[in-house]
Specification:
With 350 residues, this protein is mainly alpha-helical. It contains 14 helices and no strands. The longest helix has 35 residues.
C-alpha cells in the first residue's frame, strides 16, 4: 500500500472511530445479552399454561421425565424460544449487511424479494417433493432467496442511472407480489393451503429440536463470517471508490456478503416463513445507537434482533391468549411506519 493510501486509511479509521460509540456498543452487547437470558426464561414460562420460573430452571438443569410441565418446556417451549433468538439475529444481520454493501437504507430481505423467493421455492418443494428432508428444504430456500435477489437487482439496475434505494424497493415489491401470487396458486392447485399457511403467517411455534440442530450451524457460521467481513463492509458503506482505494477486493467482499445474506435469510425463511421488517428496523436502531462502524453494528444487530424477535413472539402469544396473533402482523405494525419514515427521509428519487 502506498504512503498516500496509508494516510487515507488512517484518516478513514479515525473518522470511523469518531463516528462510532464503542462504549455504547459494549453496553448494548452486555445488557442485551443479559436481556436475552431473562426474556428467554420468560418466554419459556409464559404461554397458554403459565409455568413458574423455578420450574423452568428445574426442567433445564434437573429434568424429570415424569413431569408434564418439564416435558412441555423441553420439547416445545425451549426450541421455540431458542429459534426466536436465532431467527431474529439472522434477519437483523442480513439486513445490516445488505444496507452496508448496497448503501441502501431500505434494504431488507423481505423488501428486496429474498423472502418471497425462498417461500416460492418451499411451495414448489411441497408440491413436487413432499417427502423432502428439512436440510434439503433449507437448500432450496437458499436457491429461492438467490433467485429473488438476482431478479430484484436486475430489474432495479435497468435504469440508465443504476439502482436507487426506492427503485430497488419498487422492484422488490413487484417481484415479491409475483412470487407470492405464484406460491398461492401452487397452494390452491395442489391443495397445500393448510401446509403453506404456517409459512405465510410466520412463526416459530412448530419448530422442534431437530430443526434447531440443522439451523444452528448454518446461522453460527454465517454470523461469524459476517463479523469477519464487518470492517470491509464499513469501508464499502463509505463508497466503492474509497474501498478500492484502500486496497479492498470489493468483488470478493460483495460475493461473500451475498452468500452470508442468502444463508441467513434463506435459513430463517425456511424455519419461520417470510417475516418482514426485522432486517429493516434493527440495523437502523443499531446504527443510531453505536455509529457507522459495522464492526459494532453487526454484533449489536444480532443481539437486538434476537431480543426483538423473542419479545414479539411473547406478544403474539399473550395479546389474544389462548389464541396466537401472527407474529408477522406485529412486525408489520412496527415496520410499516418505520419504512415510511426512512423512505421519506431518504427522498423520493425514482
Amino acid at each position: 500500500m502506498s504512503k498516500n493510501a496509508e494516510q487515507m486509511a488512517s484518516t478513514i479509521e479515525n473518522q470511523l472511530a469518531v463516528q462510532s460509540r464503542p462504549v455504547m456498543a459494549m453496553v448494548i452487547l452486555v445488557v442485551g445479552s443479559v436481556g436475552l437470558i431473562l426474556t428467554l426464561g420468560l418466554s419459556i414460562a409464559l404461554g397458554a399454561a403459565d409455568i413458574q420460573l423455578m420450574t423452568v430452571w428445574k426442567a433445564i438443569f434437573q429434568f424429570d421425565t415424569t413431569s408434564t410441565e418439564h416435558s412441555i418446556i423441553r420439547e416445545f417451549r425451549m426450541p421455540r424460544s431458542v429459534a426466536d433468538i436465532l431467527i431474529g439475529a439472522s434477519f437483523a444481520v442480513a439486513g445490516a449487511i445488505m444496507q452496508g454493501v448496497t448503501r441502501n437504507p431500505l434494504a431488507d430481505s423481505g423488501l428486496l424479494g429474498l423472502n418471497a423467493g425462498a417461500t416460492l421455492m418451499i411451495a414448489l418443494c411441497f408440491a413436487f417433493f413432499p417427502g423432502l428432508s428439512y436440510t434439503n428444504l433449507m437448500l432450496f430456500s437458499f436457491v429461492g432467496a438467490g433467485i429473488g435477489a438476482v431478479l430484484v437487482f436486475g430489474i432495479g439496475s435497468l435504469s440508465r442511472n443504476g439502482p436507487s434505494p426506492i427503485r430497488l424497493v419498487l422492484a422488490g415489491a413487484a417481484v415479491s407480489a409475483l412470487f407470492t401470487a405464484v406460491s398461492e396458486g401452487i397452494a390452491i392447485h395442489f391443495q397445500l393451503s393448510q401446509n403453506l399457511a404456517f409459512w405465510f403467517a410466520g412463526g416459530t411455534a412448530g419448530l422442534k429440536w431437530p430443526q434447531i440442530q440443522l439451523l444452528l450451524p448454518w446461522v453460527i457460521i454465517a454470523l461469524i463470517v459476517a463479523l469477519l467481513l464487518s470492517k470491509s463492509i464499513s469501508l464499502l458503506s463509505l463508497g466503492e471508490d474509497v474501498a478500492v482505494g484502500l486496497g479492498q477486493r470489493t468483488g470478493l467482499i460483495k460475493v461473500l456478503a451475498a452468500v452470508v445474506v442468502l444463508v441467513l435469510a434463506g435459513a430463517a425463511v425456511s424455519a419461520v416463513g417470510p417475516i418482514g421488517f426485522v432486517g429493516l428496523v434493527i440495523p437502523h436502531i443499531a446504527r443510531f445507537l453505536v455509529g457507522v462502524d459495522y464492526r459494532w453494528i453487526v454484533p449489536c444487530s444480532a443481539v437486538l434482533g434476537g431480543l426483538f424477535m423473542i419479545v414479539a413472539d411473547m406478544g403474539a402469544r399473550l395479546i389474544n391468549a389462548p389464541y396466537e396473533t401472527p407474529i408477522g402482523a406485529i412486525f408489520a405494525l412496527v415496520g410499516v411506519p418505520f419504512f415510511l419514515y426512512v423512505a421519506r427521509r431518504e427522498g423520493r428519487e425514482l
